[in-house]
Amino acid sequence: MKFYSQADFERSGAEKKKEFMRMALLALPFLAASVAGFVIRNEIICIAGCILFFSVIIFLYDLRLQPALRYGRHLQEIHSGMSHQTLGALVRLGSDSVYMGGIDFHEVIINIYEDLAEEGERRFLLDINKEVPAEWMDQDVIVTSHGNFVLEVELAADVKKEKQA
User: How do residues 152-162 score in pLDDT, each as one tens digit?
Assistant: First the structure.
């Protein structure tokens, strides 16, 4: 099951554009007030307009635009670097979110040892908006990842069947 496609890149770009436009539209009235205060030589209106303009810009950039930019960078990074595959039994799917690099993830734990010893556990991070089917628990899976970020999860039995055909 592939988790990322071209549609994810397009959604990320549209989200960035939407948040930038929102920030610009909400800050524009305060910039206009600042310019109007400057033109009519009213210092208080000019200063208040500047303060409110930059306050809105900083607030919305931090709250709305920066997460969209981080997610877009994350998508580009995981698709531009090397990926590797790990075969193991799917041991655990985390229900709590893990915050790393400005993005929320779920933990996916697989065990690469046949006897399922604890030191064989490997931790991967899966985008919080994606999910692995719960019925895959305790089955052998192949995790394709970039670093520890999951790109794809497949059942090992399905991959063997495809190679035999």
Answer: 999 988 766 66
